[in-house]
Amino acid sequence: MIISMKDASKERVFNLRNGEKYVDLTSYSDENNRIICGVLIPGASIGMHLHENDSEIIYIIKGTATFLTDEGEEVAQEGMCHYCPKGHSHSMLNKGTEDVIFFAVIPKH
C-alpha cells in the first residue's frame, strides 16, 4: 500500500498536548496506525503525554529534538529515532534555531 502524504490531512495544531506554540502535521490514520509528517518550529513543543494503548516511533529528518521521558531527557538529531513504548510518557521540544522535521508512526496495540 502506498500512502501519498501530499493528499493526506494537513493541520496546524496550537499547544498540542499543552505544549508551546504550534506544530504542523500531515497525517494518515486507519484502524491500526497513525502516520505523521511533522514540523516543530523553534521554541515549540508537544506536551508530555502517556501512550496508554499505543506506542510511538519518531524519526528525525532534520534538526535536533529534545525528548523528555518518564526515564529522563534524550536528544535526537537528524538520522536518529526516538521510541516511546506502550505504557510510557514523553514530550518533544525544539530548543534549536531551525525547524525540526520528523516522521512518526503510532501503532495501536
DSSP helix count?
A: 0
- The H-and-E topology, N to C, reads as EEEEEEEEEE
Strand content: over 45%
Question: If you compute it from the alpha carbons, what radius of gyration comes out, rounded to the nearest whole angstrom?
Answer: 13 Å
Q: Mean of residue pLDDT?
A: 97
What is the CATH architecture assignment?
Sandwich
Q: At the first level of CATH, what is the class?
A: Mainly Beta
| Poorly predicted sequence stretches spanning 5 or more consecutive residues | none
Structural class: mainly beta
The 3D shape can be described as globular
> What is the CATH superfamily label?
Jelly Rolls
Straight-line distance between termini:
21 Å
Largest sheet geometry? 6 strands, antiparallel
Roughly what percent helix? under 10%
Number of strands: 10
CATH topology: Jelly Rolls
